[in-house]
Amino acid sequence: MKNTLLILVLVISFSSCKSSKRVKSKRTTTTKIITKKNKKESNTITYKEPSNRASRNVTKADYIVDYAKQFEGVRYKWGGTTKSGMDCSGLIYESFNSSNITLPRISRDMAKKGVKIALKKVTKGDLLFFKTGNRRNSINHVGLIVDIRDNDIKFIHATTSKGVIISGLNESYWLKAFHEARRIL
Description:
Elements: H1 2-16, H2 60-69, E1 81-82, E2 85-86, H3 88-97, H4 107-110, E3 115-117, E4 127-130, E5 141-149, E6 152-159, E7 163-168, H5 172-177, E8 178-183
Antiparallel strand pairs: 1-2, 3-8, 4-5, 4-8, 5-6, 6-7
Helix pairs in contact: 2-3
């Protein structure tokens, strides 16, 4: 009787023990390979002067825009201010800082500086402010105007999905989210 009961308990306990094989889901994102830097390298950006400097009058706006363009392609990183990662206000902060112009670090605070201007009067080096996403009631994104061509305002900024890129204000998303333009210089 005890042997039968013991065997019954063992059979029940082993049969209730399931072994399931989990299938690992395939990753749909791509993986970047990060290599170690030499001791001589750093995360800071050194300004590279444009090669055509002698052929044009270089303004402070040109220097700021050229500095910002060096970050093009850098991945997005919240709070980032280096080549290893950049956010929108960090890009603007560092670009103006390269010309000894200190701005607040947050886009909504940047929007309190300079002079508000009409969109039809913007020029290279002016800032565009946006209200995007869930927080439509407050400014949460900023871009730097790099060019105006074909009736479209081109601006450099850092997006969470594509990192530092140049976009056009005529793109429906940015036009809808646009709030104001300001001149700092």
